[in-house]
Amino acid sequence: MRRLLHAIWKIITLPFRFILWIVRSIGTTLNRGAQSVSSYFKDEEIDDAPIGDTLAATIENPGALLPHINALRKHLLRAVLAIVITTAISFLFVRDILSYLAAPLAGGIHELIAIDVTENIGTVMRVTLLSGFTIALPYVIFEVWLFIAPALKLSSRIKGLLAIPVALILFVGGMAFAFYVMLPTALPFLFNFMGLSTQPRPSSYYNFLTLIMFWIGVTFEFPLVIYLLANLGLIKAKTLASQWRIAIVVIAILAAAITPTVDPVNMGLVMAPMIVLYFISIGLAYFAQRNRSTKQKEALNKV
Known about the structure:
The protein is mostly helical and 303 residues long. It is 79% helix and 0% strand.
C-alpha cells in the first residue's frame, strides 16, 4: 500500500518536479555563465614574457598549445553556429533585402534579367550569406575577444570589449558609405560608359554590390585595428607616418583587387576613403601610444 501511494505521489508531482528541474538547470547555467564572465574582469597576474621566449617555450613543449587549440575550436564552432542561424534568418527576408539593394537601379529589382539557370539561386545565396555575416558580426567579434581575453590585462580586456560595438559601427558605416556614396556615382558611369547601354544581370550586379560593400566595411575597421595594436605597443605612429608613400601604393593594390573593374574612377572611389582612414589611424595610434607611455611612467613611479 505504501509503495502504491508513493507511486501515485510521484505521478501527481511529476509536472512540478519537472518544472523545478528546469528552474534549477537554468539557475545553474546562469550561475556558471556569471562566474565565467566575472572571471574575465578579474585583475590577474599576466605572464608578460617576451614573444621570443614564448615561441621558444612553445617549440620545446608543443603540447602546451593543445588547450589553446581546443579553446579556439570551441569559439570558432560557436561563431560559425551564430552565422548559420543569422543566415537562416536572413533567408526568410531575402526578397526584401534584394529589393532594397536594387534601389540604386532606375527600375529596381525588375531591371535585372537572369540568363543562366542557376543564376538566381547563386545570387540569393550570396546576398543571404553577406546579410547573415553582418548580423552575426558582433557575436563573432565577441567570441574572438573571449579567446584572447585571458592573455590580456584587465584594462586591455575592458578596452577590447568596448571595441566590439565600435567595430560594428565602423563595418556598417563602411557598407553604408559604399551603398549611399560610392554606388550612386559608380553605377551611372559603368552602365553608360562610352555611350554603351548595359542590361544588368542579377549575378553580376549583386556580386559587384556585395564585394564592394563587404570590403569597404572591412577597410573601415582599419583605424580600430591600428589603435588596438598601438595600445598594445606593437606599432608606432611615427612608423606609420614615415611609411605613408608605401601605404598609398599598398592601398592602390588593394583597391585594384577590391574593384571588379579596372577604370580609375571606381578605383579612386575605393582608394579615397582608405587613404583618409590611414591618416586617421596615424592620429589614433599617436593617442594610444601617448596613453601607453603615460601609464608606463605612472607604473614606474609607483615602483
